Amino acid sequence: MKKIFSILSLMVGLAVFGQKIPTVSKTEFTQKALQDKVVNTERSSLTLENVINQYKGNIVVLDLWATWCGDCITAIPKLKELKAANPDVKFVYLSMDKTEEAWKKGIEKYQIEGDHYYMGNNWKNDFATSIDLNWIPRYLVLDQEGNIAKYYSVKAEDPEVQNTINKLRLK
Fold it and tell me: What pTM was computed for the model?
């Protein structure tokens, strides 16, 4: 009886609290979302639009992560493999850490190479809401124009991430 109760509790918990894959795959960011502010490692404030515009002409993998997120930390080796397999792709990390100090320590501790921006631990900002953020890590692939080519992935080793990168190279 205890075993059945445990299984039912787990199923209900997953149904209530588990991640839900968005039913719509968006291909662009809203203008309001692009106006959200981030801070770079030099402590300069920028809008997400400024950040995305810097990479136009390149394929970009956006990684939303945080040092407090166990799944994010576990995913780092696979993310590094993805990055090594795609040296022509820009990797941009958007941190949702609770503090800038934790974010900067995490970059150093986990030796994450790429361009880093601090968003703060705000799941309700316009950017997070616009991309239906419900789980981290979250990976988006942007095309050379800054549009969203792969909208939803929570695993760096998701074959669709690499397939999307490969298709974009043919553009």
Answer: 0.85
